[in-house]
Amino acid sequence: MSKPSAGEVRLARAWLSRAVEPGRGAIHDLVTAVGPVEAARRLRAGEAPGRAAELAEARRREDLAAEDLAEAGRLGARLVTPEDSEWPDDALRAMEIAFARERSAGGRPAGDGSARRDEQRVELAPPLALWVRGSPRVHEALARAVAVVGSRAATPYGEHVAADVAYGLAGRGWTVVSGGAFGIDGAAHRGALAAGGLTVAVVAGGLREPYPRGHSALFTRIARDGLLVSEWPPDALPQRHRFLVRNRLIAALSAGTVVVEAGVRSGALATGRQALRAGRAVMAVPGPVTSAESAGVHDFLRRCPEVQLVTRAAEVIELVGAIGDDLAPERQAAPTPRDGLEPLARQVLDGLPAAGAVSPDLIAVAAGVPPLDVLRCLPGLQLRGLVEATPAGWALTAAARGSGRDRP
Amino acid sequence: MSKPSAGEVRLARAWLSRAVEPGRGAIHDLVTAVGPVEAARRLRAGEAPGRAAELAEARRREDLAAEDLAEAGRLGARLVTPEDSEWPDDALRAMEIAFARERSAGGRPAGDGSARRDEQRVELAPPLALWVRGSPRVHEALARAVAVVGSRAATPYGEHVAADVAYGLAGRGWTVVSGGAFGIDGAAHRGALAAGGLTVAVVAGGLREPYPRGHSALFTRIARDGLLVSEWPPDALPQRHRFLVRNRLIAALSAGTVVVEAGVRSGALATGRQALRAGRAVMAVPGPVTSAESAGVHDFLRRCPEVQLVTRAAEVIELVGAIGDDLAPERQAAPTPRDGLEPLARQVLDGLPAAGAVSPDLIAVAAGVPPLDVLRCLPGLQLRGLVEATPAGWALTAAARGSGRDRP
């Protein structure tokens, strides 16, 4: 068996991408064992081992590999394979590891009990090839990537937040990966584009007419400034079962997955769970508890302690970014004149009347602190401009009265 | 030293409640060591040990105990002491344990770094006595109690959720404890009252004019149907430092504390942290990430893994209720005809065209599954009413087409 040419390899991968549904461990193992050209030959000839042969049986007599490559060319797309320098090896490493771990554990992912059975049976086998449209090189686009996914039936709140998070991520040099769907996915792509950043849409059908058609203008923009990615040949239909398989890829290609809105049964939660399987960071943005579109997110946060609550891009980056250089700034309230006061000094301050001046002894009685402590605290309070010594005794300054407005 | 009479004990406790601010470990230890009557005598005489003497120094010469008890009587209130059968021993047990633990650990609670210093220095010493207005017996009202607290500057969303959670708790026989403040506290009390349940307002000043005055009508209702509780004598002012001390009592008296809305600096978060100190369940209700009034809640959930996200009363009860009998029902979506289908059967179903009938072989090609598997799955799909055999081949039923509407 002589070493196959690059063209033969490409044709074999194109053939495989049509002959078998992606993500199947048996096919992955065969290709790993004998290479794509020999794997394709055996499957075509009906000579492959048991399960792999079964998976390829229905379509093995069909060969549209050259046509698919030509069609991709007409669409401005290309087939990216593991043999290419732009193959996202680094991004897929976590998936390879998780796949190997689940194989050795018997093929069943650890579930939290809420995943549906078919979702748990989606195998995490890495892609055999990717159909790609867009100029950025795939491995570079995915070097720092976060998925932002959520409900198609999003609320204005959810779309606002998804766009805002995506805008913040893209503005800090992170690629935003999503599924191109209506609702949250679309808002995430648009937010990234608005920031002039990179965005990648991973779709569940072919690139000729990416699903949903209503997003064709968005897909055109994504293909111009970012990437459209699919595991299926250009004319493949977005069959329903393909969404779960596609979701595993969104999760695996991204360092972290952020779920913005999701009903209790949303596919976005499946993406989140698959990101957990793939050992990726999983985050969720809460919303009003009165909103059905946040109910799935809240359930997810309640059930899975690994899922982190996030509210903005900086917090996402803190979780997926390089340790140390991506810490989110702490939220802080405006400082008040009382900040930094010792508790005792606060108590003394509270012992002064709102108006008028009193003796230290009366302050001690009102505050319930030892008179000596009152005498010790007053000079410090005076230095801070909170109290003043008057001929009639000690009094609050205007500044101290102002800072106490919200409470008596 | 003869055993003091019940009347002497009551007078001593009334005197202590005015002479020293509540929550102080040194006073608690003295009372525990020598009893309230002897403790009051020593403090009054300036014979108490160091720190206790200091704490009582400012007010030890004043004795309004009889007047305070008479004033309470005029207000329809009473002093409840550890010697009374209605003293909430059970509710306060967690506080006693936490107080002892912090004492032995050197007096400093474990912080998450976000608590302000003065908050951390609030000692968890149990109350010496409670001024109470309302007919329910205190220990009974607090046998099953949850605190619902939050921002005074609440949003309509927050007030709605607080009232809803309180309504749900009260309707299931749980007492709702809060601080009587504007905003979330008021909404929680009202929600409990609306359900015909018990509610307890723990206030930071005396019961003659509970703070804030704007809630006087609400306080009247609470006193009629529930309880007003204070550690201070009837005429005490709601001084600012007293709120933190009061918050520790709200947290300690309740099996769990639910924070509904809180800015990054809200006192409600202090209550939550004190509930953590007291070993109580702490919960938080998320909100829109665009709302400043939920920012503190989200920070709290992010920083403290012990804090549980909750969205409704049933989930609160699951966390604080007796194990086993208070499980929240799982949120479920409406079932669809595809529920329970094997993944393979779903894939076969996806291989049928939206309209028209086809052969099993064509289904196999479209679905990418082995033809034998197609033949195996079709009878099951037919039994479920999802496909039908027609003279032209196999076709989707109307029901199956209907259930696929949301995706191609």
pLDDT < 50 runs, ≥5 residues of chain A: 404-408
> How far apart, in Å, are the first and last alpha carbons of chain A?
89 Å
Q: What are the secondary-structure elements of chain A, in order, as H or E?
A: HHHHEHHEHEHEHEHEHEHEHEHHHHEEH
Residues in helix, % of chain A: 40-55%
Globally, the shape of chain A reads elongated
Number of helices of chain A: 18
Largest sheet of chain A, in brief, is:
9 strands, mixed
**What is the third-level CATH name, the topology of the largest domain in chain A?**
Rossmann fold
**Mean residue pLDDT of chain A:** 90
Under CATH at level 1, the class of the largest domain in chain A stands as: Alpha Beta
Nearest-angstrom radius of gyration of chain A?
Answer: 30 Å
Q: For the largest sheet of chain A, list the strands in their spatial order.
A: 1-2-6-5-4-3-7-8-9
Q: From the structure provided, what is the oligomeric state, counting identical versus distinct chains? A: homodimer
Describe this structure in words.
- The structure is a homodimer of 408-residue chains.
- The first copy, chain A, is an alpha/beta fold and 408 residues long.
- In chain A, 48% of the residues lie in helices and 11% in strands.
- Chain A has 18 helices and eleven strands.
- Chain A has a nine-stranded mixed β-sheet with strand order 1-2-6-5-4-3-7-8-9, sandwiched between helices. A two-stranded antiparallel sheet of chain A has the order 10-11.
- The longest helix of chain A has 21 residues, at 25-45.
- In chain A, 56% of the residues are buried.
- Mean pLDDT of chain A is 90; it is low at 404-408.
